[in-house]
Amino acid sequence: MRNRVRRLLEGLLAAVLGLGTLAVLVLLLWTFSPHADGGLTGALRLAADLWLLAHGAELLRPGPPGAPPAPVGVTPLLLTALPCCLLLRAVRVAGAEPGPPGGTRGALWVAGGYLLGVAAAVAWTASAPIAVRPAHAALHVPPFVLLVAVAGAWATGGAPAARGLARRLPPGVRRALTRRRLRDAVRVATAGLLAYCVAGALLAAGALLVRVRAAQESFGELGGDGTGRLAVLLLTLTLMPNAALWAVSYGLGPGFALGAGAAAGPLSAPGGGVPGLPPFPLFAALPAPGPPEHAWAWAAAAVVPAAGLAAAVRCAIRAAVPVPRQRAAAGWAGTALTVLLAACLLGLALGLRAGLAGGPLG
Predict the structure, then answer these.
(1) Using one digit for the tens of pLDDT, what is the confidence trace for 104-160?
(2) Is the distance from CB of 338 to CB of 345 less than 8 angstroms?
(3) Which of 101, 119, 163, 204 could share a disulfide with 243, CB 3.0–4.6 Å?
(4) Cβ distance 150 to 102 under 8 Å?
(5) Strand locations in 161-310, DSSP E?
(6) C-alpha 87: how far from its chain's center?
(7) What contacts 184, CB < 8 A, 6 or more positions away?
(8) Smallest Cα–Cα separation from 12: which of 118, 104, 96?
(9) In degrees rounded to 5, what are phi and psi of residue 72?
(10) What digits encode the pLDDT tens for the residues 222-254?
(11) Residue 151 dihedral angles phi and psi, to the nearest 5°
(12) Mean per-residue pLDDT of the chain
């Protein structure tokens, strides 16, 4: 019982640390802002809103008079790294405590303590002008917390559920899906995901550098004074991982949506032609229609698929170089199976990240 309470408190502490980190940043901007309104309570509620938004919850912002509230559902992926790191640390600390091994059950207790902090933050921001939708938070935040906590427990002590499932597989499938092949597929998929993110970041940064004047003008229109420009700069930085994923989607071909009925891709680049786009710095990187912008399509076609080549090279090296105490290489059939598994894992990871990176901007 004592170990369960410790794990519960460890998860609650992780939630408090994440919320406190964002509160310090928001209070710093609120202190130096010459037009601060809402008081200290409003600033702290805004920090709680940002913290919940980092978990995938959707906010509601007041709209113009007579209009319904505008949803804000784009998750800043740079902020998402904060709760992920704190949750993984809490699971690792809880697993190292004396007593019976925690494993998946210990991670669930940590996640339960963390969700207590989430529930308190949702209840506290319910009456704020910018509020979290409780139903949306109940559907999206618990799966996020459980996934990170269980993944941390499995990465530390192994996946008992996976071992139990492997025993129930047919002998032929069990021989094909060996532990080494699964481990190689995970490593190849991780290398491919990292390469894709780096390629997307380079593509997005290059587009911003080419249109740096338009980005600077949008800073002036949105920020106004020095504190406002600093806030816009911080918001732009937190959304840069999102922009990298948008660039990856652009380079791979599907593109990304820009409001209702508009999309940006290698074959269709509406850019500034989309009505209703606010003057935000990241929107300055959108390719505009016209022949000169075809160069960006070629750049995306060269940079982003090069990331897939990095994963292919790693897979070929793992297949061609025999590991110690192995008589022969994997062979073409084993290599093809490893590539198929890695491709499925990489597509799943990119799809989940793309789903988290998108949403209404409000």
Answers:
(1) 788 889 999 999 999 999 999 888 888 888 888 899 899 999 999 988 887 776 655
(2) no
(3) 204
(4) no
(5) 256-257, 263-264
(6) 15
(7) 315, 318, 338, 342
(8) 118
(9) -120, 105
(10) 766 777 788 888 888 899 999 889 888 888 878
(11) -65, -40
(12) 78
